[in-house]
Write a structure and sequence with these properties.
Length: 232
């Protein structure tokens, strides 16, 4: 990829280890809210309901079926209802605490630091995330990612989530880059890969959980971040 000068990364579960950081925060809150003592459910029982609720609402946000506020109002009430706790009065406090505290854990995805160190002298590096504006900045500021990043664009800031071309165009404009000299790397097939390639950008798919089995001929797939060195 000879002419590439700018690399745009997705943030959650591509560089910032959302799954791990969220799980640590949820376990801590689960204990503080004494859910096991009051409702007789364990964290291990709760977590799959949270995961399902969170993943499907983020997909709905990407597909513009829900707003950010709806996602935040529904994610924990639905997770607790799935578990068997209907009308959980504490669910919105739980949401508030989760958003404020999830960035207290700042694990990055395996290989992220080594990769960013390798890329930093060759390329200008940017973030384009579907995350909330404020939380996205905290995730970057409080982790090692901040040392490598030039610009940050969020769906909230752009006014549209990936795969909408507006999100990609906004991040290019902010970076002062053209699509021909840019490449996008992310872990969501629709938001990241369909989004970038439809927009006309080069792309590489990061597929660590091997969850997705679709492919586009010109899009390489890697299971570990460090394998990106082969292409960049
Ligand atoms: Mg992601």
């Amino acid at each position: 990829m000879e002419n590439i000068r700018h690399i745009f990364f997705d943030l959650d579960n591509t560089l910032w280890d959302y799954r791990r950081n969220a799980k640590i925060t949820l376990a801590k809150l689960f204990e503080e809210f004494q859910i096991k003592e009051k409702h007789a459910y364990t964290f291990e029982e709760f977590y799959p309901f949270y995961y399902e609720s969170n993943e499907s609402l983020w997909a709905d946000l990407r597909d513009k079926k829900v707003t950010k506020d709806e996602l935040r109002a529904r994610r924990f009430p639905e997770a607790f209802a799935g578990l068997g706790i209907e009308n959980a009065s504490f669910a919105m406090d739980f949401e508030e605490r989760f958003v404020n505290e999830v960035t207290n854990s700042n694990y990055v995805v395996e290989g992220a630091e080594e990769l960013l160190e390798y890329l930093k002298d060759k390329y200008t590096i940017h973030i384009l995330s579907n995350g909330f504006e404020e939380v996205t900045h905290w995730k970057i500021e409080k982790s090692i990612i901040k040392d490598y990043i030039d610009t940050i664009t969020t769906a909230e800031g752009a006014g549209a989530p990936k795969p909408d071309p507006i999100a990609f165009q906004t991040s290019l404009d902010k970076a002062g880059a053209t699509k021909e000299e840019s490449i996008y790397i992310g872990d969501d097939w629709i938001a990241d890969m369909i989004g970038a390639t439809t927009f006309g950008m080069n792309a590489i798919f990061f597929n660590p959980l091997n969850e997705n089995h679709m492919w586009i001929e010109e899009v390489p797939i890697v299971g570990q971040l460090i394998q990106l060195k082969k292409y960049l």
